């Protein structure tokens, strides 16, 4: 078994990437989606592990700046009583499966997979009809988040450009009010990276 695994292990490639992101909290209000976003950034280390023909396993460990704005505790007229704005760091672990397409010296990869994340240090501001108060982030946001990641990367001479989209699948909030939809953390990241091939 070890002998069979050695050729695969020899093909494992490591890389790094850094990029800018548009990150936002998204919720459904009156059958329409609303987003409150901000700019963020991220850095990551990743690996590419071929396992079957053009398929490879491409896990990452990323530190990302995330956050956004969302409204809650709506009155009978549908107007929000509270508005939260958050910025925080997140440790993300996307577990992608990639399909690689070589095209005359260029290597393109399309990938997707689950992306668990852990919220780290951050800050949040609360506004209640013009009044501001600083609640603690850990009391208003859950520590664990699960997203679905999808993306595309184009590599040329070990340098690659990638676009990644994270779609939140779990409610971010610890305070949930009646008749309100979940709040999801979503983001789109544009990165430049390098593979040590």
What can you tell me about this protein's structure?
By secondary structure, this protein is mainly β. It contains two helices and ten strands. It has helices at residues 2-10, 137-140, and strands at 13-29, 32-52, 55-74, 80-92, 95-103, 106-128, 131-133, 144-156, 159-168, 183-195. Strands 1, 2, 3, 4, 5, 6, 7, 8, 9 and 10 form a ten-stranded antiparallel sheet that branches. The protein is elongated.
Short summary:
This protein has helices at residues 2-10, 137-140; strands spanning 13-29, 32-52, 55-74, 80-92, 95-103, 106-128, 131-133, 144-156, 159-168, 183-195. With 197 residues, it is mainly beta. It has a single domain, classed as Porin, CATH 2.40.160.20.
Secondary-structure map:
Blueprint: H1 2-10, E1 13-29, E2 32-52, E3 55-74, E4 80-92, E5 95-103, E6 106-128, E7 131-133, H2 137-140, E8 144-156, E9 159-168, E10 183-195
Antiparallel strand pairs: 1-2, 1-10, 2-3, 3-4, 3-5, 4-6, 5-6, 6-7, 6-8, 8-9, 9-10
User: Which segments are poorly predicted (pLDDT under 50) over 5 or more consecutive residues?
Assistant: 1-7
Q: Which radius of gyration do the C-alpha atoms yield?
A: 20 Å
Tell me the series of helices and strands, N- to C-terminal.
HEEEEEEEHEEE
Question: CATH top level?
Answer: Mainly Beta
Question: What share of the residues does DSSP label as strand, in percent?
Answer: over 45%
Features:
197 residues; disordered N terminus; Porin; elongated; 10 strands; mainly beta
